[in-house]
Amino acid sequence: MEQSPRRAGQPAFDRRALLRNAALLGISVPALSALLQACADSPTGSGKGPGGGTPTEGLKIASPDNPVTWDIADDNQPIADGLQPEKGPLRVYNYADYLGPGVIKAFEEKYGVDVKVSTFNDTDEAITKIRTGAVPFDIYFPSYDQIGRLVTAKLIRPLNHSYIPNLTNVWESFQSPWYDGEARYSVPYSVYTTGVGWRTDKVSEDVAALDNPYDALWNSDYKGMVGIIDDWHTAMAMVALRSGVTDVNSENPADLEVIQTALTELSAATKPKVTVSMYNDLPAGQLGISQMWSGDIVNAQYYLPKGQSADILRYWFPEDGKGLVDNDLMLVLKGGNNPVLAHLFLNHLLDEKTSLKNFGYIGYQPPQNSIDTDSLVADGYLPENLATAAVRKEWFDVAYRLLELTVDNDAAWHQVWQQFKAGA
Fold first, then answer.
1. Where are the beta strands (DSSP E) in 143-299?
2. What are 265-315's pLDDT values in tens digits?
3. Domain count within the chain
4. Coil, strand or helix: which one is 299?
5. Which of 21, 40, 16 has the alpha carbon at shortest distance from 414?
């Protein structure tokens, strides 16, 4: 298994939190709101309810109860069948350290091309550069809750599945997901949960055994040792669940008041560090307990000081799956010069062996049918004390999902988060 070479002291990066910032199109929250309101006045996709209801006009908000199959525009058609791959170089735009070097090298050798990986630190930078077309990137890695805006802006190409037969290797629910019916524009990359990670040498109690494990983040005994993910929706959704608000995309002002009150109490109790480098801060001893993504607690073992056993690390996520589960995507950008090669690269990453090798490097689990979740420890992908970081397919049927929000609701959530950040 190829393991991540990242170590403490390297620059911090955020793989997905910034993909959920309001600045999807490289603009401010107010400007984004105005743009999306304008988008709502024109057709962008076919929204179908559970019964395949009548398509509606405007920007679609996809959800498990309201799946969306996006239209394919006349001026943005899939590539034809049977085309020869371009000569490259293939340009990939991704977060740092979110793609295994060995996986890239194997593709280069197979097709005799160069793969150029460019990285970004935030969505403002990424989308602005994509929109300008200054660099013709071929492939981009967002999270599922941004696909509606990307389709609306016509920044991505619809896929020709004849080049991606390995799509059948992934969980069936991702072969035609609710956020992109028929997988017209996306294929899945990784799946992950959001829970609580801690060090047993700094946190004496068994967090997983608490009646409400989220409460540990409010425990004043850990003041100055607590971390919260610097992602407005992920952090606030956790606060909602801890407070008994199960609609993590709620439009109810009363629910937002509950979240705001709990955030204020959190600040007073533990003065949490709002961060995206939990995978480094926890093993480095800067934190004792933190809200974390499952992939980052897996990566944390590689950041421990030399000689420090990974046995001190723990991770909790609800055993019944009723927590936050999410996934990232791979998309082919419309402005790229190598659409055939891009399709083949997606297919390469969906290959069973390639996907598992990549998992060993990035720490984030792919939704592959070949993976036996119960054997991830025996197979060396997870240490036994972090077996709870495995992501189970059935959880996607019961978990809470972070959705794109309406313009007004997005602004309301951001207002609460900005007030919290100002006092954090």
1. 187-199, 226-229, 273-275, 289-293
2. 999 999 999 988 899 999 999 999 999 999 999 999 999 999 999 999 999
3. 2
4. helix
5. 21
Contact 351, 421 (CB under 8 A): no
Expressed as residue numbers, the domain containing 114 is: 17-53+63-191+327-380
Name the amino acid, one letter, at 196. Answer: V
Residues 355 and 307 in one domain: no
Judgement on whether residues 179 and 34 belong to the same structural domain of the protein? yes
Q: Tokens for 241? A: 């669940």
Give the pair of three-digit tokens for residue 118. 């460019």
Residue 107 belongs to domain with CATH number: 3.40.190.10
> From CA 203, how far away is CA 386, in angstroms rounded?
16
DSSP class per residue in 46-93: EE--TT------SS---BTTB-EE----TTSPPPPTTPPPP---EEEE
**pLDDT, block means (10 residues), the chain with 424 residues:** 40 40 39 40 35 43 93 96 97 89 97 93 68 89 85 94 98 96 98 97 96 98 95 94 97 97 97 92 96 94 92 97 96 96 98 95 94 92 95 95 90 94 81
The answer to whether position 228 is within a domain reads yes
CB 237 within 8 A of CB 323: no
Residues 285 and 376 in one domain: no
Q: Which pair of structure tokens corresponds to residue 331?
A: 């998309």
143 and 270 part of one domain: no
Strands 139-140 and 324-332: antiparallel
